[in-house]
UniProtKB/TrEMBL annotation:
Organism: Natrinema limicola JCM 13563
Keyword flag Amino-acid biosynthesis: no
A biological-process GO annotation: DNA repair
Molecular function terms from GO: 4 iron, 4 sulfur cluster binding; deaminated base DNA N-glycosylase activity; metal ion binding
Name by which UniProt lists this protein: Uracil-DNA glycosylase-like domain-containing protein
InterPro entries (alphabetical): UDG_Type-4/5, Uracil-DNA_glycosylase-like, Uracil-DNA_glycosylase-like_sf
Length: 210
């Protein structure tokens, strides 16, 4: 496979259209990891899943650390928590820009940044999309599958399942702050099962079925 790029952070040089961050925060938390990855983990925004200080998705917060622990368990991540080394895995947010403490993105904010997220997702061109939380899952199912209408957005039921999309296999992940019982083990087991399969055939299968 030809390398897309060797850059780890913001590999395609995206420039967010606004900066509303607090003075000590990064203006945006760009996509990070292996730009040639087969697995793309998709979070919501920095205030939820972390990175406002580090500039790296899925750091700093409870949810971020829990997702990172799953990636370490299946061999995608190693090294320090605040700057992990990723292999075959890429991390990004549907809303990359940092906001003042306590603020949440509006629907208009998400819409403004959607084209940046979409451009990066298509450039990475991963086989497996792993949206984390209800907002990211809703967006991925609406935009990259034809099956959103078939599902209520019940993350307890969608967690660690596989859904065929338009050229992708989507595996939703419930936000870790809502995990209980065996939710952590369920997503680890699902990822291990995918890794043990011929998952690189997923894109062709998903295109046919989705």
């Amino acid at each position: 496979m030809q390398n897309v790029t060797d850059r780890t952070s913001n590999p395609f040089g995206l420039e967010p259209p606004f900066d509303r961050s607090d003075p000590d925060d990064r203006p945006a938390v760009f996509g990070y990891g292996d730009a040639n990855a087969d697995f793309h983990v998709i979070g919501d925004y920095p205030g939820v899943h972390g990175g406002e200080s580090t500039g790296i998705p899925f750091t700093e917060t409870e949810s971020g650390h829990a997702i990172q622990d799953v990636l370490r368990a299946v061999g995608f991540a190693s090294g320090p928590r605040d700057e992990p080394v990723l292999e075959n895995c890429f991390l990004s947010y549907i809303h990359m820009c940092s906001l003042p403490d306590g603020d949440v993105p509006t629907d208009e904010d998400y819409a403004t940044l959607e084209r940046f997220f979409d451009a990066e997702l298509r450039a990475i061109n991963a086989h497996i999309l792993l949206p984390v939380g209800a907002r990211a899952t809703d967006h991925v199912l609406r935009e990259y599958t034809t099956q959103r209408r078939r599902f209520d957005l019940e993350m307890d039921e969608l967690h660690a399942t596989d859904i065929r999309g338009r050229g992708f296999l989507v595996v939703p992940i419930k936000d870790p702050v809502e995990w209980y019982d065996d939710d952590r083990e369920a997503i680890i087991s699902q990822l291990e099962a995918i890794l043990d399969s011929d998952y690189r055939q997923t894109k062709g299968v998903a295109t046919t079925v989705g």
